[in-house]
Write the structure tokens for this entry.
Amino acid sequence: MIRCEHVTKVFNRGKPNEVVAVRDVSIEVNEGEVAVLRGPSGSGKTTLLSLIACVAKPTSGRVFVAGKEVSKLPERFLTLFRREHVGIIFQQFNLIPELSVVDNVVVPLIPTPLPANESRKRALALLKNLGMERRSDFKVRELSGGEQQRVAIARALVNNPRIIVADEPTAHLDTALAEEFLRIMHNLKREGRTIVIATHDPLVFQHEMVDVIFDMRDGRLVEVVR
């Protein structure tokens, strides 16, 4: 489902502040697997996650997602591909605080041809599954951190993506909320979704649902644990 071949990502290339965030990394994640990119801050795991999520393109190397070489796609087509195949759960959630819960979930569907009433119906169904139906008309700023994360998960799922990526999803959660997040991810795995999580949280990478761990240090892949 996901394959990176000798991927390197350089920021500010050729400038005094040049940073090589990912160095010659090759990984594979099979369909339906849960993979963890593990490493300390600055290890390159978030950058690698952004390449897998089609948010960024590598400086060199090749990235394949769902059978497509996304590293060669023009930006417009990369955006369309991401919208159809990838759901992203951001570390800071990136919700719009003044919008309602349901309107936040609907946002990724706005550019699609799906009618507004169908978009709302799909969003409400996801919120119900995540125990957030009664909060659907609340403003996001009125929610707790755990509730905001459920909204972020619903938004990531609203396009029915085959792949879900999450960046440090438990960083701002207490143990109970982190375990609730992992329960939701485990259920999504059972549905056949492919999940990639960037984290240094033992609660995540020691979870029974994890199939493979890619250890990152200084932008390099140092170990693969299956």
In short: The beta strands are 2-11, 19-29, 34-38, 60-65, 68-69, 86-89, 163-167, 194-199, 212-217, 220-225. DSSP finds seven helices and ten strands in the chain.
